[in-house]
Specification:
Order of helices and strands: HH
Number of domains: 1
Oligomer: single chain
Radius of gyration: 19 Å
Structural class: mainly alpha
Number of helices: 2
Length: 82
């Protein structure tokens, strides 16, 4: 059960990283903020970033479901052995 929790945690971390990268891509398409020159919106793949956002959300939700299931199974095993 611990392996399942570790795998789910790692998957949620990777999904969070993907979400952050997609958010940076979307933010880079905005107007310049301060002295920082951002890439023009025409050079930023917003559709790909949107797909990454949806994929990251799904991956995080699926890994969270694995963690909940592993937690529930561990609880049941402890109840049986008690």
């Amino acid at each position: 059960m611990i392996d399942a929790l570790q795998t789910a945690t790692a998957g949620m971390s990777r999904a969070s990283d993907r979400l952050g990268k997609a958010a940076q891509t979307i933010a880079a398409s905005g107007a310049p903020a301060g002295d920082t020159a951002l890439a023009p919106a025409a050079q930023v793949d917003l559709s790909g970033a949107a797909v990454d956002l949806i994929g990251a959300k799904s991956a995080f939700a699926l890994n969270a479901a694995v963690a909940r299931t592993a937690d529930r199974m561990t609880g049941q095993l402890l109840d049986i052995s008690a």
